[in-house]
Amino acid sequence: MEVIISEPDMVSKRSKFAYSVGHVLNDLTSSMWFSYLLVYYHRIVNFSNASAGYLLLIGQIADAISTTFVGFESDRTRTGLFHYGRRKSWHIIGVICVLCSFPFCFNLCVECKDSDLWAQFIYYTMFIIIFQFGWSCSQITHLAMINELTHKDDERVALNSYRYAWSVVSNIFVYTIASILLGFHSSNDETDITSVDAPIFRKLSFIVVGIGFICMIIFHVFLKESQQPAEETEQRLQLSLTSSGRLKRMTWIRFLREKQFYQCGFIWMCARIILNVTQVFLPLYIIDTISVLNRVYVAIAPLCCYLSGLLASFPMRAINKALGRKITIIFGLCFILASAILFWFIFDLKDHLRIEITLISACVLLGIGTSTTNICSFSLASDLIGLNTECGAFVYGIMSFADKLANGIVIAIVQQWNPCTLASTTTCALYYRYILTFIPIGVAILTILMILSMWKTNIGGNRHEVIPEEQNTVERTNALSHENECDERSSLIA
C-alpha cells in the first residue's frame, strides 16, 4: 500500500494569468536598466565609461546580496505580514521599493544636476541600492511560488513560459515606447543620444512605473497564495511515502552539497550573462559600431530580439517535452552562436539596406536563443527544487546571486577598458564588435560543455531515503491519519 499526500497539480487559468504578470514591474524596469543605463549615465549625465560601469556594478552587488538575504528570510517566514502569505508579503515590499526609487535612477539629479559628478554619483547610488533591493524581493519570491503552485512538471514549465512571455512583452513595450520617443523627439543629431534627450528617459521611466503598478495590482488581487502554515506544508511533503521510501527533507546545507546545484547554477548564470551583456551593449554597438543607422534602431533592434523571443516561448512547453531540457538548451545556444557571427560581419558591410537586414536577422536569432536558454535554465532550477519547496527561495536566491555578481563584474570590466569617448572612433567601433561577438560565443561554449558534463544526471531525483519497514509502517499510518485530519479540516472550512 502506498500513501501519496495530495499535491497541487493543475493551476487555474486565472491564477496562471495573475502569476505571469507578477514580475512585469521588474521586467519593465530591468529592460530599461540594462539597455539604457550606460547610455544614460555616460551620454546624458556625462559620467565616464568606468563610472557608469561602476554604478551598474554597485547595483548588481546590491541585488546579489539582497537575493541571498531575501532567499533565507522568505523561506523562514511563516505566514507573512498580517497573514498575507509569506511569499506575497516579501513581494509587495519589493514592489514598494521599486516604485519609490526607480524614477530617480533615470532622472537628472534633483536640486543637484549642476553639482560635482562625485556628488551625483552618491545620489544615484542611494536610489540604485533601494531599487535593487526591491527588485530582488519581488524576483526571488515570484520564482519560489512556482514550485508551491504546482508539482507537475508540465505545469511548472508552463508557468516559466508564461512568466518569460510576459517578460518579453514587457521588453517589447519598453522598446516600442523608446522608439516612439526617440523617433519623434527633436534633436540636431539623428544618429546619437546627448544630454538634450534627458526628458525622453524621464518620460519612459514614469510610463514604465505606471504600467508596472497596474500589473502588480492584478497579481496581488487575483493570485491567492496558500494560507497553510509553512510547517504544515513541509510536514505534508516529508510524509509523502512511496515504494522508494520517504522524501528526504532538504536544507540549504544539503543543497550546497549537491553537485547538480552548481551545474544548474552555472547554466543559469551563463544564460543570464548572454542575455544581459547583449542587452547592455547592443545599443552602444548600434551607436558607435554601426554609426550610419538612425538612432531609433537603439530601440528597434532590441525590439526585434524580444518579438522573436516571444514567439519562441509559445512552443517551449511542447519542445521541452519532446526533446528534453538539455537538448533544447543546446538548440537555443546554436541560435546565439549564429547571431554572434552575424554581429561580427555587420561591421564589414557597406550597403545601408544590407546592414539593416543583417542587424535585424542577428537580433531575431539572438532573441530565439536567449528566450530558449532562459526558459530552460529556469525550468532546470525548478527540477532541482522538485518537491523540496522548503528551500525554494534559497536556491533561486543563490543562483540569482551568482548571475547578478557575474553580470556586474563582466560589464564593469568591459567598461573599465572601454576606449570610447563621446566622439566615436574606429577603435571604439571595433571594441563593441568584439564584445557582442566573443563574449556570447565564449559563454555559449562553456554552457554546452557544462550540459554535456551532466547529460545523464537526473536533476532533482534520487532524494528518497530508505527507512526500516517498522518505521515505514508507523509513518504510513501517521500519514493516513494526517491526511484524514486535513480532509476533515477542509470540509469544515468549505
TrEMBL record:
GO terms for biological process: carbohydrate transport. InterPro entries: MFS_2, MFS_trans_sf. This is Uncharacterized protein. It comes from Rotaria magnacalcarata. The keyword Transmembrane applies. The chain crosses the membrane at residues 21-41, 53-72, 92-110, 122-144, 164-184, 204-223, 266-286, 292-315, 327-347, 359-381, 393-414, 434-455. GO terms for molecular function: symporter activity. Belongs to the major facilitator superfamily. GO terms for cellular component: plasma membrane. It comes from the Eukaryota. The keyword Transmembrane applies. PANTHER family: MAJOR FACILITATOR SUPERFAMILY DOMAIN-CONTAINING PROTEIN, MAJOR FACILITATOR SUPERFAMILY DOMAIN-CONTAINING PROTEIN 12. Keywords: Membrane, Transmembrane, Transmembrane helix.
